[in-house]
Design goal:
The complex is a heterodimer of chains A (about 300) and B (about 375). Chain A is α/β, with parallel strands linked by helices and about 300 residues long. Chain A is built from 11 helices and 14 strands. In chain A, strands 6-7-8-3-9-10 form a 6-stranded mixed sheet, sandwiched between helices. Chain A has a 4-stranded antiparallel sheet with strand order 2-1-4-5, covered by helices on one side. In chain A, strands 12-13-11-14 form a 4-stranded antiparallel sheet, sandwiched between helices. In chain B, helix 1 (about 5-20) crosses helix 2 and helix 9 (about 200-210) packs antiparallel against helix 13. Classes of the chains: A alpha/beta (about 300), B alpha/beta (about 375). The interface between A and B is medium-sized, with 28 and 27 residues.
C-alpha cells in the first residue's frame, strides 16, 4: 500500500458554500502530513471527513484500504481523532477520561493497564490522574486529549489544530510526543495555523478556499517560491511600511517586532536595489540584510499571488 | 451491540449526574418535591364553603333546618343576617359563596304541605364552590324532609321507610370516601416521575454543544449503545424515585396502596424506558439544549395534565384526542399508577398497558437510533 490515506476529487459543500473543493490527497504510511492554510481554507472540514464525522458531497476517500463512504465504522477503530474544540469530559478526572475511551475503543486487561500507565507518563499527567479535566491547564488538557486518542494505539492520527492556544513550552512537549509517535510508525495528519509547525512536517498541503494549492516537502515549497527576503529595522516604522509597499517589485511587507521583512520578486542585485529605493524615499533604517525564506513568507507569497 | 460500550456510557452519565449538583437535585429530588407541591394544589377537597342564612321564620323547624344544612364540615355558616342587603354585601365582598333565605311562612308552609319557601343565592363567579354549595344544601334539604316525613308518619303509627319503591344503596369501591387525593395523587405520580427523565434529551444536546459528541462520533461506539447508555442512568434514578414518592403518597397523603409493589416497580421501569426513549428521540432531532428542554416539557407536562386522563377523563375526549392520549406513555402509566394504588389490579389487567409501554419504548428508541447519524452534517 503506497498511500494510507488517499482522496480523489473530495468535495464537501455546506449549501452553496464549497468548503472542500475537489481535493486530491495522497498520504504515505508513517508520514507527518500537515494541512496548512488560512481560516476557512478547509482544514477542519477535511479532517472531519477523514475522521468519518462528516458526509462526503462528492469524490472518494480511502483510508487504510477501506472506502470511507461505505466503511467508515470499520475504519474508526483504527483512527485517533482529536477535534479542534477541546472535547473531553471536564467533570471526569484524567483517569476516568482515559478509562472511558479505553472502554469504547475496546482496550482491555493488561494492555489497558499498561497503555494507561504509559500514556499518563508519556503526557506527564501521572501526578494529576485524579484531577478533573476541567481543572487542568490548557496545555495539559491538550495532552490528555491526545493521550485519549492514543489509548487504542491507532495507526492513523488526525489532529485538528492541536496546539492552538497552548503555551510554547507545552507546544514543544506536544511536538516531542508527536515525533516519538512518528518514529513508532504512526501516520499523523495535523492541521496547523503555525508555520513553524508546518516546517516540522514531512510534507504539507497548502489549502486555499478549499482547494489544494501544493503538496510537498516544506523545504521544496520554500525554495520554489521565487523571490528574496530582505529584513531591516526602520526608524519610522509606520512610514517605512507604507512606503515599502509602493516600491516596484515588493510583493509583501511583514512585521516582526520593530523589524520588517520585505519579500521581493526574484532578481539580481535586490539588496542594492532596495537600498537605493529606501534612500530615494528618505527612509531611515539599519541592519539591512538578506534572510532565508521561511515557510511563513513562502505561504504568504503563494497565497497573495493567488488572490491577485 | 457491546454491553461494555453501554456500560461505559452509563458509568460516564452517572458521573455527570452525581457531579453536577443541579442535575443531581433535579433527578433525585424534584419528583418528591413536585408531588408535595402539586398534590396540595390540586387535591384540596372542597370544605368549609362559607354561607350565611337569612331566617325570616324564626321557628323551631327553621332552626332545625339550618342545623341540618350545616351538619357536615363542607358548609360553614358564618353569619345570620337580617336582610337581603347584608347578603348582597357579603356576596360582593366574597365572604360567602351562597346564602340561604327562609321565608316567613317556612314552618307553616311545610306542615300544610304547601311547599316551604327556601331561596338559595349563589355566587356564580366560582362555579365550582357555588355549585358545590347548592348541591350540598339541596341534599341536606332532602334529608331534612325525609326525616321529617318519617317522623310524622311514625307519629301516626306508620313506617314509610318500607314504602319507597326503589331502594338505591350506592357503594363506592376502592375509594369509599371519593377523596380526590386518592385518585389524583397516583395520577400526579405518573407526571412527576416522568419529569427528570426528560433531561436525557438535554444530555445529547449538551454533548453536541460541548463538542464531545464529535469525539464519540469518531469512535467505534454504536448508536444504540450510546442511546441506551444514556437512558439507563435515568431508569435507575427513576427507580430511586419510586420508593420516595410512594412513601410520600402513603404516609403523607394517606393514599392506600392496594396493588403489588413488585409489579408496580417492574411496570414503572418499562414506563421509564418508554418515556426516556421519547426524550432520546427529541435529543436526536433537537440540537440545542434550550430547545430540547422546551420541547420535552411541552411533551410531558402539558399532555401530562390534559391528556393522560388525570384531570379530564379520557372517555370524555373526542376520538382523535383519545388516540393522541394513547400514544403518550404517560397515559398508560397513569392507568398503572392509579390501578396499583387504588384498585389493586394485578398483572392480568395491567399487562396490556405494560406491553403498550414496552412497544412504545422499542419503537421510539428504534426510530431514534435509526435517525441518529454519527455525522455532524
Amino acid at each position: 500500500m503506497e498511500y494510507i490515506i488517499q482522496t480523489t476529487s473530495l468535495t464537501r459543500k455546506y449549501g452553496q458554500l464549497i468548503a472542500v473543493d475537489a481535493l486530491d490527497l495522497a498520504i504515505r504510511p508513517g508520514e507527518i502530513y500537515g494541512l496548512v492554510g488560512a481560516d476557512g481554507a478547509g482544514k477542519t472540514t477535511t479532517l472531519r471527513i477523514l475522521a468519518g464525522v462528516l458526509t462526503i458531497t462528492d469524490g472518494e476517500a480511502w483510508i487504510a484500504g477501506e472506502r470511507l463512504a461505505t466503511n467508515a465504522e470499520k475504519i474508526k477503530s483504527n483512527i485517533g481523532y482529536m477535534a479542534q474544540q477541546f472535547s473531553l469530559y471536564g467533570d471526569l478526572s484524567v483517569s476516568e477520561n482515559l478509562a472511558f475511551f479505553a472502554d469504547i475503543y475496546d482496550v482491555w486487561g493488561v494492555e489497558r493497564e499498561e497503555r494507561t500507565r504509559y500514556l499518563l507518563e508519556f503526557a506527564q499527567l501521572t501526578r494529576f490522574h485524579n484531577r478533573r479535566a476541567q481543572h487542568l491547564s490548557g496545555g495539559m488538557q491538550k495532552k490528555l486529549a491526545l493521550a485519549s486518542t492514543l489509548i487504542h494505539q491507532p495507526d492513523i492520527l488526525l489532529l485538528d489544530e492541536p496546539t492552538t492556544g497552548v503555551d510554547p513550552v507545552s507546544r514543544r512537549e506536544f511536538w516531542e510526543i508527536l515525533t516519538e509517535l512518528h518514529l513508532g510508525g504512526t501516520t499523523i495528519v495535523i492541521s496547523t495555523p503555525y508555520m513553524d509547525e508546518a516546517e516540522r512536517c514531512n510534507r504539507v498541503a497548502l489549502l486555499h478556499n478549499g482547494r489544494l494549492i501544493r503538496s510537498d516537502k516544506p523545504r521544496d515549497i520554500q525554495s520554489s517560491v521565487e523571490g528574496d527576503v530582505i529584513r531591516l529595522t526602520p526608524e519610522n516604522w509606520q512610514y517605512a511600511q507604507q512606503q515599502l509597499k509602493q516600491i516596484p517589485g515588493v510583493l509583501e511587507v511583514q512585521t516582526y517586532g520593530n523589524r520588517l521583512h520585505v519579500l521581493l520578486s526574484k532578481g539580481e542585485g535586490n539588496l542594492s536595489y532596495l537600498e537605493s529605493e529606501l534612500d530615494r524615499r528618505a527612509i531611515q533604517f539599519s541592519g539591512l540584510e538578506r534572510t532565508p525564506m521561511r515557510m511563513e513568507e513562502a505561504f504568504i507569497s503563494i497565497v497573495s499571488k493567488l488572490e491577485k | 451491540m457491546s454491553l461494555r460500550h453501554v456500560y461505559a456510557v452509563t458509568l460516564k452519565e452517572i458521573r455527570h449526574i452525581l457531579r453536577d449538583k443541579a442535575t443531581f437535585f433535579l433527578v433525585v429530588f424534584t419528583p418528591t418535591l413536585l408531588l408535595l407541591l402539586l398534590a396540595y394544589a390540586v387535591t384540596a377537597d372542597i370544605t368549609h364553603v362559607p354561607i350565611s342564612v337569612l331566617d325570616m321564620d324564626h321557628s323551631p323547624t327553621s332552626r332545625a333546618f339550618i342545623e341540618q344544612i350545616t351538619l357536615g364540615d363542607d358548609l360553614e355558616l358564618i353569619s345570620h343576617v337580617n336582610n337581603i342587603k347584608a347578603i348582597e354585601d357579603q356576596l360582593l365582598k366574597g365572604s360567602i359563596k351562597a346564602a340561604v333565605i327562609l321565608s316567613p311562612s317556612f314552618e307553616r308552609g311545610l306542615y300544610a304541605m304547601r311547599g316551604a319557601g327556601v331561596q338559595i343565592l349563589v355566587d356564580g363567579t366560582e362555579p365550582q364552590s357555588g355549585g358545590f354549595a347548592v348541591d350540598k344544601i339541596a341534599l341536606r334539604s332532602d334529608e331534612f324532609i325525609s326525616k321529617l316525613l318519617v317522623k310524622q308518619f311514625a307519629a301516626q303509627g306508620m313506617n314509610i321507610e318500607n314504602l319507597l319503591p326503589i331502594d338505591v344503596r350506592t357503594q363506592t369501591w376502592y375509594n369509599p370516601n371519593l377523596k380526590a387525593s386518592v385518585d389524583i395523587i397516583p395520577g400526579l405520580l405518573s407526571i412527576v416521575l416522568a419529569l427528570p427523565g426528560m433531561s436525557v434529551a438535554l444530555t445529547l444536546a449538551r454533548e453536541r454543544e460541548h463538542g464531545t459528541l464529535e469525539q464519540l462520533m469518531a469512535s467505534p461506539v454504536g448508536k444504540s449503545e450510546l442511546l441506551l447508555g444514556k437512558m439507563i442512568p435515568y431508569i435507575l434514578s427513576g427507580l430511586i424515585n419510586i420508593p420516595l414518592t410512594t412513601a410520600i403518597a402513603l404516609y403523607w397523603f394517606g393514599v392506600p396502596f392496594n396493588g403489588n409493589f413488585g409489579l408496580f416497580v417492574l411496570l414503572s421501569s418499562i414506563f421509564f424506558f418508554a418515556n426516556l426513549s421519547m426524550g432520546v428521540l427529541i435529543g436526536v432531532f433537537i440540537h440545542s439544549q434550550a430547545a430540547a428542554l422546551a420541547l420535552s416539557l411541552l411533551l410531558v407536562l402539558f399532555p401530562g395534565f390534559f391528556l393522560t386522563g388525570i384531570f379530564f377523563p379520557i372517555a370524555a375526549m373526542p376520538p382523535i384526542v383519545r388516540m393522541e392520549a394513547l400514544a403518550l406513555p404517560g397515559t398508560h402509566y397513569a392507568i398503572i399508577t392509579r390501578a396499583s394504588f387504588v384498585t389493586g389490579a394485578g398483572i392480568d389487567v395491567l399487562w396490556l398497558y405494560g406491553m403498550a409501554l414496552l412497544l412504545m419504548g422499542i419503537a421510539f428508541t428504534g426510530i431514534a437510533a435509526y435517525s441518529f447519524k454519527k455525522k455532524l452534517a
